[in-house]
Amino acid sequence: MDYITIIGLTAGALTTVAFLPQVVKIRRSRSSGDISLLMISLQCSGVFMWLLYGIGIGSLPIIAANGVTFLLLCAALVLAIKHRQ
Fold this sequence. Notes:
Helices cover 81% and strands 0% of the residues. The chain is an all-alpha fold. The chain starts with a helix and ends with a helix. The mean pLDDT is 85.
């Protein structure tokens, strides 16, 4: 594995993990009043497009990072809608 791929995978892991605390917080508190549904929706759409782009060019770092991030954002969106006050 070359260093550019390692950098891409590391960057993807860091940006993906960044969404995990938000998902956990919404799930634990059962509250999403301070979360912008528009922001999550736009982020989810953008990440999905990055995923499609990664698939199109066959880039493992882009596919892996954006695939997991997309799932986390979808979970955050579903939880935010479910626990909206």
